[in-house]
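are you around this afternoon, could really use another pair of eyes. what follows is a protein written twice so to speak, once as letters and once as structure tokens for the fold. i want to understand how the tokens follow from the sequence so walk me through it. anything you notice is useful, everything is just below.
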Amino acid sequence: MGKTMRAVVLFDGVCNLCNGTIDFIIHWDRDAYFRFASLQSAAGQRLVQGCNEVGGDSVVLLENERCFTRSSAVLRILRILGLPWSLTYGFIIIPSRWRDGVYDWVARHRYAWFGKRETCRLPTTAERQWFLD
């Protein structure tokens, strides 16, 4: 898979699970392929305008002028991160309504299980290069 163009991950900036996921992606993204913006930010709002059916409970992957949401976004991100995470992409054969059902269940409970920040994530100086303004 060619990685010349960068992809953007939009996420819920106040969700602790979502922020932990961004930390995970940054750690494993050996090619610095991903850039990030919270859905609440001006950049996130601008970028999400071209996507259909995006809610605050969804991670969004913008890649090659396409929008991927929910479980499809997560599986594509993991595939791009390479081994061992790319092995999870096999779950793509499960119908999206089932995968997204699990995704939606976790999304509904994420604040109760993982907590919520008072404000959106502010990247550290070291992380700044990965975040869009």
